[in-house]
Structures are given as structure tokens and as C-alpha cells.
Amino acid sequence: MQGLNNKLLDENIDLSGSIMDREQFELIKVMELCCRDIVINLSMHDELNNVPERIESSEGNILFNSYWAQTRNNAVFVSILRWCQVFGAHKEDTHWKNINSLSLSTMRANICNACDITEDEWAQYHKIALSFRHKLVAHVDVGEILQNPAKVHCLKVYLDSAKFLRNILIELLLDFTCTDSKVLNYVQLLSRLTNSELERQARKMAATALI
What are the structural domain ranges in the chain? Predict the structure, then answer.
């Protein structure tokens, strides 16, 4: 199944003559990849949390400069970047609101239901992600004190929202009508790569690396 994930990363699809608008198909395809990256990286981050914390008296590791600490941090950074691409600023080309078939108000409520939070709570999680992205990941505001998403229990919301949206994106791709066998094969492969399978793969990669 790992090979399936790699195959999906490399697919180059010809949509000429298809019923679905080419631009919409490409948008949904890229958004699915963003959500896939979030699921993979946050699952790896969670699995790597099993690494024992450093010993405070260890002078050689006084700044927590271990490989696994950096890997965990990088997983959060990638996830926040990707999450903001699909859930962040509305001006983002890859924001979910740019999918023509989705209702803005209904979709927002469904996302909150999937994350088991209120819309007011969603606004706070959204604010934390954007601030972290703007002031530390994509840019750096010197001296800025930020809420760390990994320390304020935001990551579960980001993971659950990405999984929810990814399921919708895959359903939209499955509804795509086309006679091109390459396109059909891509969509079928993607539908087999469920969120559960992605999480299993990511945790297995992280756990294997820890041995």
C-alpha cells in the first residue's frame, strides 16, 4: 500500500474531453494531497510522541536537539502549512470554498460537527493555526509569543478536519465522469487509500524508525 501512495504522488492525468471542469478536478486533486499530507504528518507526530522525553541533566541535549524532536517539529510545521492552504485564508487558491459544489455555511457546520466543536471554537483553532503559520513557519516575527498548536490540543482538530474534508474530496473525484482509463485508475487507487490506511502507514513508518 505504500507503493500506492507513491504512485498517487506521481500521477499526471489528461482531462481533455471530460465532463467535470478541468480546473475543478485539478483543484480537488491538489486539495486531497494537502489533506493527505496533514493526515500522514500528524499521525507520524503522534507516534513519535512515544519517544522518551530528554533527561533534564543531559548537557549534550540541553536544547532538545535530537533527531526525533526535530522530526516531530517538522511534522507540525508541514501540517500547519498544508492545513492553512485548505482551511486558512479564503484568498488561498486551494481553500475548500473554491469547490463549486460545496455550500459555505453547511460545510463549515459539518466540519465543526466532525471535529466535535462549536463554530466559535473553530474560529479560535483557525486563529491559532494562521498565527502560527504567519509568524513562525512561513515568516518569523521576532519576539512574538505564540500558542503552540501541539501544546494546546489543536492538532486533533486539524487532523479530524483534514480527514473529513479528504473524504468529501475523494467522493467528488469518484463522481467524476470520464472514459480515460488513467483517470479512472487514479481515482480508484485514491479511494482505496483511506484515512485509516494513511494513519496506519504513517504510524508504521514512525514506529519502524524508532527501533
Answer: 2-6+21-51+65-210
